[in-house]
Design a protein that fits this description.
globular; 9 helices; 252 residues; D-Maltodextrin-Binding Protein, domain 2; 9-stranded mixed sheet; 12 strands
Length: 252
């Protein structure tokens, strides 16, 4: 065999060995892009938010080449299973039902849900106060079940494709109340006092949010968990959480 042929064969073998490793370091991440301040698209068309910063920190810890893209919430899990992307970093609550379809990392934050109303509504702070009203909630979230369990047919439930559209309808008096993540709505109330929103009743649905992956991607799951440990230990997590919420969301 000539020296030239030997070199070509050697390079071919190297390509077979190296390519899978290089490919594994390229991770496609999806987020919703309509769940401010966790993930949203800014006026420049760029993704921002807590989830986005966490995703970037994790990729840095993994030394991975990551890309972030938006995906409608309703189609998030089906698109992951169809391999349109490799991981979900979108404030997805870890539930038994979802665990039947996909795998989750350890929690990267904890949250509760609360009802929100307009101050001018003057609702009394008791469960019966919302009976007979229309309550808004984002579709395909765990909060819809909370409304059903608490009120049954005593209220009308209106679902929305995004939380932002739900907020708009509450502002425009098309809803009597809405239910959503308390940290999310606390951020909105703080930065948009003109909306005149306030919390009503207590806190519900204590949940843990995790990063979603396909069940067969055990190695990638392990990498994400190790990266989470890294950013928690090196202080990056607390810096990101404090930037967006003024405190660590890892507190239960």
């Amino acid at each position: 065999m000539s020296m030239k042929k030997m070199v070509l064969v050697f390079l071919g073998v190297m390509m077979l060995v190296v390519s899978p490793v290089l490919g594994a370091d390229k991770i496609r991440i999806a987020t919703e892009g309509a769940y401010s301040p966790f993930n949203y698209v800014n006026p420049k068309g760029e993704l921002e938010g807590f989830d986005v910063d966490i995703a970037k920190a994790l990729c840095e810890a993994m030394k991975a080449d990551c890309s972030l893209a938006t995906q409608d919430w309703d189609g998030m899990i089906p698109a992951l299973l169809a391999k349109k992307f490799d991981a979900i970093v979108a404030s997805m609550a870890i539930t038994e039902k979802r665990k039947q379809a996909i795998a989750f990392t350890q929690p990267y934050y904890y949250s509760v849900a609360s009802y929100v109303v307009r101050k001018e509504s003057n609702f009394q702070d008791r469960i019966e106060a919302l009976a007979g009203n229309t309550i808004g909630v984002q579709r395909a979230t765990i909060h819809e079940e909370t409304i059903k369990e608490m009120y049954g047919d005593k209220v009308t439930i209106k679902t929305y494709d995004t939380n932002e559209n739900c907020i708009l309808d509450l502002q425009n008096k098309r809803l009597g109340a809405m239910i959503a993540s308390r940290p999310l709505m606390a951020h909105f109330i703080k930065h948009h006092p003109e909306a005149g929103f306030t919390f009503l009743l207590g806190m519900y649905n204590p949940v843990a949010a995790g990063i979603g992956l396909r069940k067969e991607d055990a190695e990638l799951l392990s990498k994400f968990n190790k990266a989470l440990d890294t950013i928690i230990q090196n202080g990056a997590y607390d810096r990101i959480s404090t930037k967006w919420f003024g405190e660590s969301l890892l507190k239960k």
